[in-house]
């Protein structure tokens, strides 16, 4: 140990390197302790009386008078600097604070920045609420479901074009049934806003009651019917819902295939094949048939809520009762669009629930396999099932009432035979198919009613499904079950053509409630198409997985462009086969008289195809009209059409007055070749009626 000589002549114990040894007796630590003992509560007094302060003051004075040697100076500067920083009492501080403004006695680490902080991770910034919202929205935009929905919508606009080119003036395929369905949406929206109790008693078919239940109602689209007024708004609404129905079908089938375990590209093939199968192109004029996207979407939600997939089976940890509620609500909404598609869906759901429950309890009882289900999931199924059943019952009551009031509305097995397609229908495309329409013209000519008998789901889909029987991500047992479902659906789609339906369609017709209301069995091909799509998705998914395996073996591990494009070929072929040549005729314009003449009124000529545009024209004021077109014709409307053939004469005028009709409108541009071509200008003297012209319409006021 050496001695450091201060300017005042005092000595302090130092270490070998010239630094003060605070641990030595008489060092600075002892001095500081003594000062703190003398005045524990008064920093200022302690600073004044401490000997270290006097030494520091003497050091400053002596430093000006005597200059130490270079060696001593260097040692003294180092010692003094360390001394000042270490204790905070040197340098003549009389306030109890050191040169950095810290209180005396503060440890050195508290006043110095951490020299290693620059090398540590930067502190994570606290995001603002709008920052969090932006990040959430960004993640939402690139989420798989968002991309699938946007892709489905873009594809729907493209493959239904030119539906949205002139949406206020044209309708897809024809303007008969689409006019009826445009009126249905407008009526449900209008009456639910004005007088919900009269929902089932529409303004058409006057003076009939329950007339809204004469055909499928599309009641689930009522919220859209609340927007806009008049025929043009009804046309725009119909065309928008037509496109959205295609988008929902594609999205729903995609989601179902993904939930069951298919890859993205395989699910896309299933979604497109389900929506744009060639046989569905002939149904472009039936929105209640095209609106089938709720079926696969509800099944996907229910499967996800129960933690089940076709590929992975039951996974209890993935259960979520929220998806179960959503699935049942979507199923109820699908049922509200109409029983033509909704009733078979209801029976499929019922069979699925029963089979799943039987398998569940069989595994618990016979295989002693106990898997959790959960009370909350059971409650969700119970409540959701009751909601679905409640909607079905409430919808069914008006239809059962109609069959009681109008026995001719009930179908017979002979009616079903008229629309039952032969087996050749499964290989025949409709005229609306761009790819196969002209080629299959001869085959269509052999079908009695080709709009409902051309049931080709697509040759590409057939090929992919057959490939899926041999090369697929599904297990062999699952492939066979899917194939069995396809065959059953096809057999039912043939109606009475397969062994006269004795073992297929007729038992359902005789014993299942409501099944006799289904007029066209060929629409059951929807289920065969969905199952074929799942088989195809299995094959395409296996192909995509094989491509990934091959790419993993490459160096670098990345597939070539040709290999990646190969996975898109099945999707491109399915899209190509789904292109169409569907016509979009211009809808007859609403006569000005329909905007001013009060009801009840009759528009002549009257007939199934004439009356449906008249229903559309009535959406401006919804006045009562005798005209109406639906799945059947009430006897009273038949009598009106028969008696009105001689209008205006005394018999027809008296008959219409007994019904409560006040005005009759005769359309001059529609009466060529009819009895009214002459009688419309006949004298009306003595009949007690008046006649006036409003544009091209002759108005008779009774």
UniProtKB/TrEMBL annotation:
Keywords: Membrane, Transmembrane, Transmembrane helix. The keyword Glycoprotein does not apply. The chain crosses the membrane at residues 140-161, 238-257, 264-281, 347-366, 378-400, 455-473, 480-499, 524-544. Residues 23-34 have a biased composition (Low complexity). Residues 35-87 have a biased composition (Basic and acidic residues). The keyword Membrane applies. Residues 1-123 are annotated as: Disordered. This is 4-amino-4-deoxy-L-arabinose transferase-like glycosyltransferase.
